[in-house]
Design a protein that fits this description.
Strand order of the largest sheet: 1-2
Helix content: 10-25%
Order of helices and strands: HEEH
């Protein structure tokens, strides 16, 4: 499992990557999107309860995996 953070807005309210903001339809901060195998599995806006994230991550980890499935599409590599 990989975790990544992307700063979409700076402390001075500048948006360094409008492309990422538009691609994922982010208009409120913070926005958290959980991806699994390239698919968005959850999206939260202004959620500060870490338990909510933990439940979603646990659910994704419990999903069955198949070794014969083709490689999944990943989120773009330009998200640091």
């Amino acid at each position: 499992m990989t975790f990544a953070k992307f700063e979409l807005m700076t402390a001075t309210f500048e948006v360094p990557s409008k492309e990422i903001q538009q691609r994922y339809g982010i208009d409120t901060f913070p926005t958290v999107i959980l991806f699994s195998k390239g698919q968005a599995k959850g999206r939260w806006v202004m959620e500060y309860d870490l338990g909510v994230y933990r439940q979603a991550i646990d659910a994704v980890l419990r999903e069955p995996t198949t070794k014969s499935s083709p490689p999944a599409h990943r989120p773009p590599d330009d998200i640091p």
